[in-house]
Specification:
Layout (H helix, E strand, L loop, with lengths): L5 H22 L3 H5 L8 H15 L1 H5 L2 E2 L8 E2 L7 H15 L6 H27 L2 H13 L1 H4 L10 H21 L2 H17 L3 H17 L5 H18 L8 H4 L4 H20 L4 H28 L8 H7 L3 H5 L1 H4 L9 H8 L2 H14 L3 H19 L4 H23 L6 H12 L7 H46 L7 E4 L5 E4 L1 H12 L5 E3 L5 H8 L2 E2 L8 H11 L3 H10 L4 E5 L10 H15 L24 H5 L1 H7 L2 H5 L4 E2 L4 E2 L9 E6 L5 E6 L12
Helix pairs in contact: 1-6, 1-7, 3-5, 3-26, 5-6, 6-7, 6-9, 6-22, 7-22, 9-10, 9-12, 10-12, 11-14, 11-21, 12-14, 14-15, 20-22, 21-22, 22-24, 23-24, 25-26, 27-29
């Protein structure tokens, strides 16, 4: 009977384990579908879903040249030139392939399950990267961690059809290909790296992280004196092909040649050419001449390059850092200069509890992996350390970027655990014990002495204690990993699997209640308003309104026009007369307000209102002042003790209109835990719809015969 080679058995086991990890990765992301239904989550994904539908129905050419007149009314939006098309093209391609194979799956199902499927690819990519750096044991652990880590699951559950659904896979796989190409010095691998980088550019704005991390790795290796032909071939090929390919995405265009975010890659490319040229000269001229060339010639060149960079930056030939990127270096910048960025919850600095929630035990194993990585500092391991340092910093300044930190935490934690297991899972008798045993055997032919006869028993006791110590460490680490699995499952099922459009609550008896006010409101708009109706809401709800209600919106989550968004903020902060005039001038048919005071939903418009004012006062500083919306005690109040300006604005009136009649004269706003205003009236607007739990409220401006009698704005 022929037995399989041990290496073949090991390879087969790795494949089986990776398949099981992939199954677990997909399965753990299906709670949202099981508990609710197959639906697109959050706000941004609704735009991705709507554009994917358009792509499938009309073809790529029409999609690429689509002018969407139903968004940003009356401006419209050139869709093809203002989005990253990667996720739409990926879903449409999968849909078409399934149709060819005779599998009639709806495009919605493809979009809903895209993220879980790609999460399994990400786990495999984590295995490949870690295996390249450390070995297969660490690789399998990294894949397992990546498959269940809440920091990644938060953006990859079923229905989470955002750009990150495929982008994290592309991030990890591109880094794997880069390290592989540096190790092999293969131009083919470098070209493949560039192609996957291009795919990443088409999918997510986070591609900037890649195009800064790889040059930083090259620069660090040069600074460490680790220049090699492999490094030169890999980076030169990657940079040229990757940059040219990335410029084919209209939304990116020529940014790689004139924006600050891309200058590090360009500068590193130039520096690498100088270093390569110096090595070439070194083979042609004497050592003394070479020192002179390096000391004088290269210093002059580097100085001129620095001066050129400063000049181009000062003259605006090189665009400065965009507000979102600049706020990563100056954490207070966005709140002062670009409040619309600071108003987004995922752009806030990360609190420690978020790290423990999303990474749990991995956050403790992370530095262990860094320690072992430092112990054998190869070129690939230098990359991991750089990634760990910058990933940790960016995740600290912006909570959203825990997503980019999670892969390196999983990889380094896996390296740490694998090193511990390599030591403590070795239950073989060590060399010292063998020496003692051999010594006892050699003495057996002699007359035994009391001391000699006691040596074997001591050896046995030491061996038993050694094995018990090793076993206790292994069991301790295994218990922690099992607890991590339970934690990840609990977080996934309870915190990250609820779609924003469908809320769930439990009563005192534990019965589950579904709150479906968002879809109730969107359905009412779709069925009871004219197809050409223009709906005004805060920008958070624009994509959902366009996708679910199929109506024209003024602003949405693209947030490309601050003036337009500030105008919406100004309307909501104005009194009825002024708001009515502005609404009529902008040809608005309905105003949508989200109010959570009845249920205790804290994510409503009243809680966001201060950010609306801050954004609006950047454009209209004379009309809007934040301090006017605080009462005499400096409090942000909503009841009878609210400031006069607060009571007059339509945001306050539309939120609290008729609430006292339902909650009673002593009713409380459950979201803010303040007493409701006793009396709220409307003269220029009429209520047309309020959802079951009063979360979605719709108002229509009244028509007057003589609008000229209204006071000017």
């Amino acid at each position: 009977m022929a037995y399989l080679d041990s290496e073949k058995v090991a390879n087969l086991l790795r494949v089986v384990i990776l398949v099981l990890i992939s199954v677990v990765a997909i399965s753990s992301r299906l709670f949202s579908v099981i508990r609710f239904e197959s639906i697109i989550h959050e706000f941004d994904p609704w735009f991705n879903y709507r554009t994917t539908q358009y792509l499938v129905e009309n073809g790529f050419y029409e999609f690429w040249n689509w002018f969407d007149s139903d968004s940003w009314y009356p401006l419209g939006r050139v869709v093809g030139g203002t989005l990253y098309p990667g996720i739409m093209v990926t879903s449409a391609t999968i849909y078409k392939v399934l149709q060819v194979l005779g599998i009639p799956l709806d495009i919605r199902e493809v979009c809903v399950f895209l993220a879980p499927v790609f999460s399994s690819f990400t786990a495999i990519a984590a295995y490949l990267l870690t295996n390249e750096v450390k070995g297969p044991v660490a690789g399998l652990l990294a894949a397992a961690f990546m498959g269940i880590a809440p920091g990644y699951i938060s953006r990859s559950v079923a229905g989470s059809y955002d750009n990150e659904a495929i982008a994290i896979f592309l991030l990890v796989f591109t880094f794997y290909l880069w390290l592989k190409s540096v190790h092999k010095g293969s131009m083919l691998l470098s070209c493949t790296t560039a192609l996957f980088y291009f795919y990443m550019v088409s999918a997510w704005g986070g591609y900037v992280f890649i195009i800064n991390m790889i040059p930083l790795h090259v620069f660090t290796l040069l600074a460490m004196g680790r220049y090699s032909n492999n490094l030169y071939i890999s980076y030169s090929t990657f940079y040229v092909i990757g940059t040219l390919a990335s410029m084919q995405i209209p939304f990116v265009g020529f940014q790689p040649t004139f924006t600050s975010e891309h200058m590090a890659s360009l500068g590193t490319f130039g520096l690498l050419q100088l270093v390569a040229f110096s090595y070439y000269l070194n083979s042609l001229v004497s050592k003394k001449t070479m020192h002179y060339i390096i000391g004088v010639g290269f210093s002059v060149i580097v100085a001129l390059m620095g001066l050129a960079l400063v000049y181009l930056t000062m003259t605006k030939k090189i665009a400065p850092w965009a507000g979102r990127f600049y706020s990563m270096w100056d954490t207070g910048y966005a709140k002062i200069h670009v409040p619309i960025i600071a108003s987004v919850s995922e752009h806030q600095p990360t609190v420690w509890t978020s790290f423990f929630m999303d990474l749990n035990i991995l956050i403790w194993l992370f530095p262990v992996g860094i320690y072992f990585t430092f112990s054998t500092l190869t070129d690939n391991q230098v990359f991991l350390i750089i990634y760990a340092v910058f990933g940790s910093y960016f995740a600290g300044v912006m909570v959203r970027l825990i997503l980019t930190l999670t892969p390196i935490v999983c990889i380094l934690a896996a390296i740490g655990v694998s090193e511990v297991f390599n030591v403590y899972l070795d239950f073989r008798v060590d060399s010292r014990t063998l020496a003692l045993k051999q010594s006892s055997k050699s003495e057996s032919n002699k007359e035994p002495s009391p001391k000699a006869s006691s040596e074997p028993s001591k050896v046995h006791k030491m061996n038993v204690l050694n094995k018990l110590a090793r076993l206790s460490v292994v069991l301790g680490f295994s218990s922690l990993l099992i607890l991590f699995q339970f934690h990840s499952t609990w977080v996934t099922s309870n915190a990250y699997s609820s779609p924003s459009v469908v809320l769930a609550s439990s009563d005192q008896h534990g019965n589950r209640n579904i709150i479906d006010d968002f879809r109730e409101g969107y359905t009412w708009l779709n069925q009871n308003t004219d197809e050409s109706a223009k709906i005004m809401s805060w920008w958070d709800y624009g994509y959902q309104l366009a996708g679910m209600a199929n109506r024209t919106t003024l602003v949405d989550n693209n947030t490309w026009n601050n003036t337009h968004i500030a105008t919406v903020g100004k309307i909501l902060a104005s009194n009825e007369k002024n708001a009515h005039r502005l609404v009529k001038e902008l040809d608005i048919d309905y105003i949508l307000i989200i109010y959570g005071g009845m249920l205790g939903y804290s994510g409503d418009d009243i809680n966001k209102f201060l950010w609306m004012i801050r954004i609006g006062q950047n454009i209209y500083p004379e009309d809007l002042k934040e301090e006017l919306f605080y009462n005499s005690q400096g409090q942000y109040a909503i009841g009878d003790n609210a400031s006069p300006r607060m009571k007059e604005c339509i945001m306050h009136k539309m939120s609290y209109y008729r609430t006292a009649s339902v909650m009673g004269p002593n009713g409380m706003d459950r979201a803010r835990r303040q007493k409701l205003p006793s009396s709220v009236t409307l003269e220029y607007f009429e209520e047309v719809f309020t959802s079951e739990n009063w979360m979605v409220r719709l108002y229509k401006p009244k028509d007057f015969d003589n609008l000229d009698r209204l006071p000017p704005v």
